Amino acid sequence: MGTNIKLAWRNLWRNKRRTLITVASIFFGVVFSAYMTSMQEGSYTKMVEIVVKFYSGYMQVHHEDYWENKSINNTFEYSSELKDMILANKDVDDVIPRLESFGLASSKELTKGSMIFGIDPQGEDKLNQLGLKVREGKYLQPNDSGVVIGAGLAKYLQLTVNDTLVIISQGYHGVSAADKFPIRGIIKHVSPELNKMIVYMSLPKCQEFFGAENRLTSLVVHVIDQDHMKRSLRRLKESIESPYSIMSWEEMQPEVVQQIESDRAGGVIMKAILYLVIAFGILGTIMMMIMERRREFGVMVAIGMKKAKLASVIFFETLFIGLLGVISGILFSLPLLYYQSANPIPLTGQAAELMEDFGFAPYMFFSVQWEVFSQQAISVFIITLIIAVYPVISILRLKAIKAMRG
């Protein structure tokens, strides 16, 4: 076996041009598939980041009845012990309280349904840099009596900074909730839908408005890294008991998960076509190599070399070519995709406007997760191994006299 490996390695460099052409076909296959997958996964990561940072967080703690019936009556009383227990998990970075409900936002004769978020301004700004999204006016302060509203809602109600917004809703256990609020700022929310209906107010003011003193609809749990979320969720589900429940963003936003999975399915088809092109490229170069060396193989068999040994040598040659192509492809892809990850490609014109309308930054983002590289390298290498069967069969079926005449 050792002799066969040495012979295979030496044979590769007898004709450097032929070897480099074959390696190049595998190299470009790895690079192209890794680049496409990185761009695809980068867009998913950004989508999840928007959902997590600007709405649900990685996980949320609710009253056990709240998610099925999102009524302000299904709130729970804030408990520092509950917060401390969650923060005791080493993967948890922060716990942010929220009180969410619905109401009618009005100005003069105009009225629109709105989502009202009672927030801790400092905590939310730490989580999602909400203060940086303020386009007019200023961000909320702790215990602020004013509100910050979405740009779409402000446009519809014809309001601007320092105008008065009237909100009418139903409070805790049916109490009447109606009040006037000065507009401190106008925010351009990353979600187009929320931008048309969002109203932020400080948590104490929101609790006072709804008559829900010291009550919350959720505690948003932020973890240090998304990769640690499932481990944290499992531990917290073991420790959090009734009347509380904890849910991951995937459970709260199944439509986002379905969108990613359906898009991945489309990506699988595209990658299958790419792999098919790669496979035919590799097969073509391997067939060229076999045809060029057919006379050489005939002579070797004629002078006494066993076909099985010759087939073994050719198999190892193909194996080495596959390894060289895959390794060189990964080594080239790593710095390229790390650079693209740090410097996403900006979009312009209608493409940029379309991305912004859907709540995304106008860039093509890239992922540098190890799976991006490993999956493509393994896939292309498996294709190479399958193709390596062809020269082995060709050698075993070789007719020495016919080969030498050819």
Q: Would you give an account of this structure?
A:
The protein has 406 residues and is an alpha+beta fold. It folds into two domains: 2-51 and 257-405, no CATH class; 65-241, no CATH class. 56% of the residues lie in helices and 20% in strands. The protein has 16 helices and 14 strands. The chain has helices at residues 2-12, 16-56, 80-87, 121-128, 151-157, 192-195, 203-209, 229-239, 249-252, 254-292, 294-302, 307-342, 349-357, 370-387, 389-396, 400-405; strands at residues 59-63, 76-77, 92-107, 110-119, 134-137, 147-150, 164-170, 176-187, 198-202, 215-216, 218-223, 244-248, 345-346, 363-364. The strands form three sheets. The protein has a six-stranded mixed β-barrel, surrounded by four helices. Strands 2-10 form a two-stranded antiparallel ribbon. Helix 2 packs antiparallel against helix 10. The chain is elongated and about 100 Å long. The two termini are 30 Å apart. The relative contact order is 0.18. The model has no long low-confidence stretch (mean pLDDT 84).
Secondary structure elements and pairings:
Blueprint lengths: L1 H11 L3 H41 L2 E5 L12 E2 L2 H8 L4 E16 L2 E10 L1 H8 L5 E4 L9 E4 H7 L6 E7 L5 E12 L4 H4 L2 E5 H7 L5 E2 L1 E6 L5 H11 L4 E5 H4 L1 H39 L1 H9 L4 H36 L2 E2 L2 H9 L5 E2 L5 H18 L1 H8 L3 H6 L1
Parallel strand pairs: 4-9, 6-8
Antiparallel strand pairs: 1-11, 1-12, 2-10, 3-4, 3-7, 3-11, 5-8, 6-9, 7-8, 13-14
Helix pairs in contact: 1-12, 2-10, 2-12, 2-14, 10-14, 12-14, 12-15
